[in-house]
């Protein structure tokens, strides 16, 4: 039996301690060990980006990361974005703007978009295309994906602005 290593990591805000082989890839830990199958595998050449997750807030292709490299770290997968009842603005954007067809690339695109909008809340169309270039989509032609991310950016900026406007109004009354 091959050697295993115990590692502890936080996935979508929840702590996990698991035993893995040293060669286990993060994507296999997520899908096979933890049954978190929202993260997809679309290639064996590290090119498609369907496996994209956030590692400490930065988008990584989880098929290029060893599980042991995530020891002690924070991982966010598409399961951690929102819920059916309370979609994340990025998920809402894909719904509103028809940003998917078969949906195979969609988890990876959404996680890349999450990283992009966290670092650049007002991206231009070119910046969106650049930010998502690590994830390939065979169906959509990307146009509606760009619209979905623009929609999400607008929604997220409004959510940030709303408390600020309320605080200003409150201050003005004082
Ligand atoms: S599965 Fe294709 S880049 Fe990871
Ligand atoms: S929606 Fe089918 S691969 Fe992107």
Automatic annotation (TrEMBL):
<dbReference type="InterPro" id="IPR036884">
    <property type="entry name" value="2Fe-2S-bd_dom_sf"/>
</dbReference>
<dbReference type="GO" id="GO:0046872">
    <property type="term" value="F:metal ion binding"/>
</dbReference>
<dbReference type="GO" id="GO:0051537">
    <property type="term" value="F:2 iron, 2 sulfur cluster binding"/>
</dbReference>
<dbReference type="Pfam" id="PF01799">
    <property type="entry name" value="Fer2_2"/>
</dbReference>
<comment type="pathway">
    <text>Alkaloid degradation; nicotine degradation.</text>
</comment>
<keyword id="KW-0408">Iron</keyword>
<keyword id="KW-0411">Iron-sulfur</keyword>
<keyword id="KW-0479">Metal-binding</keyword>
<dbReference type="InterPro" id="IPR051452">
    <property type="entry name" value="Diverse_Oxidoreductases"/>
</dbReference>
<feature type="domain" description="2Fe-2S ferredoxin-type">
    <location>
        <begin position="5"/>
        <end position="81"/>
    </location>
</feature>
<protein>
    <submittedName>
        <fullName>Carbon monoxide dehydrogenase</fullName>
    </submittedName>
</protein>
<dbReference type="Pfam" id="PF00111">
    <property type="entry name" value="Fer2"/>
</dbReference>
<dbReference type="InterPro" id="IPR001041">
    <property type="entry name" value="2Fe-2S_ferredoxin-type"/>
</dbReference>
<dbReference type="GO" id="GO:0016491">
    <property type="term" value="F:oxidoreductase activity"/>
</dbReference>
<keyword id="KW-0001">2Fe-2S</keyword>
<dbReference type="InterPro" id="IPR012675">
    <property type="entry name" value="Beta-grasp_dom_sf"/>
</dbReference>
<dbReference type="InterPro" id="IPR002888">
    <property type="entry name" value="2Fe-2S-bd"/>
</dbReference>
<keyword id="KW-0560">Oxidoreductase</keyword>
<dbReference type="InterPro" id="IPR036010">
    <property type="entry name" value="2Fe-2S_ferredoxin-like_sf"/>
</dbReference>
């Amino acid at each position: 039996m091959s050697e295993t290593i115990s590692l502890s990591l936080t996935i979508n805000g929840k702590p996990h301690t698991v035993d893995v082989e040293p060669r286990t890839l993060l994507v296999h830990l997520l899908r096979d060990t933890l049954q978190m199958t929202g993260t997809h595998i679309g290639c064996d050449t590290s090119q498609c980006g369907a496996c994209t997750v956030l590692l400490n807030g930065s988008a990584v292709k989880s098929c290029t990361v060893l599980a042991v490299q995530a020891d002690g770290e924070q991982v966010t997968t598409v399961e951690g974005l929102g819920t059916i009842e309370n979609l994340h603005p990025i998920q809402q954007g894909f719904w509103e703007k028809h940003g998917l067809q078969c949906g195979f690339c969609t988890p990876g695109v959404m996680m890349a978009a999450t990283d992009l909008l966290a670092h650049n809340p007002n991206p231009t169309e070119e910046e969106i295309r650049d930010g998502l270039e690590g994830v390939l989509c065979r169906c959509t032609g990307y146009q509606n994906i760009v619209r979905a991310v623009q929609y999400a950016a607008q929604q997220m900026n409004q959510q940030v602005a709303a408390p600020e406007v309320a605080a200003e109004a409150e201050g003005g009354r004082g």
